[in-house]
Amino acid sequence: MTGSDSCPCGSGAGFDACCGPFLAGADIPKTAETLMRSRYVAYVRENIPYLKETLWPKHQARFDAAGTARWAAENHWTGLRVLETAKGGPEDREGTVLFEARFLSGGSLGTHREKSRFRKKSGRWYYVEALAE
Fold it and tell me: Residues 6 or more apart from 80 whose CB is under 8 A from it?
């Protein structure tokens, strides 16, 4: 996949104009939803270091890089749908995003549905945890 291809996050923009700069470390997401979308792309592209560095700092020490890499590699990610966002804008300090990530695993289609909590620290958004719906 080249940088001019559509971004896997579903924004309709090219990868280089969308999530590419985030995964390359050239920019940071300005909203919780943008961070969530870029984390989805990190799973698609198996960019495990990005998933760790965008995890809330106090959780990074317990990050299971090998397990996360296995989960990313074993699934063929087929699409992302953002269902709802609450707060999480450029001026907010926290927010939630409800999404569905579709994937193909072992010949079966699956959906990972999650309401994620995000928090901003020192001007940067981080994924904190999955919440019960």
Answer: 8, 9, 10, 37, 40, 99, 100, 101, 102
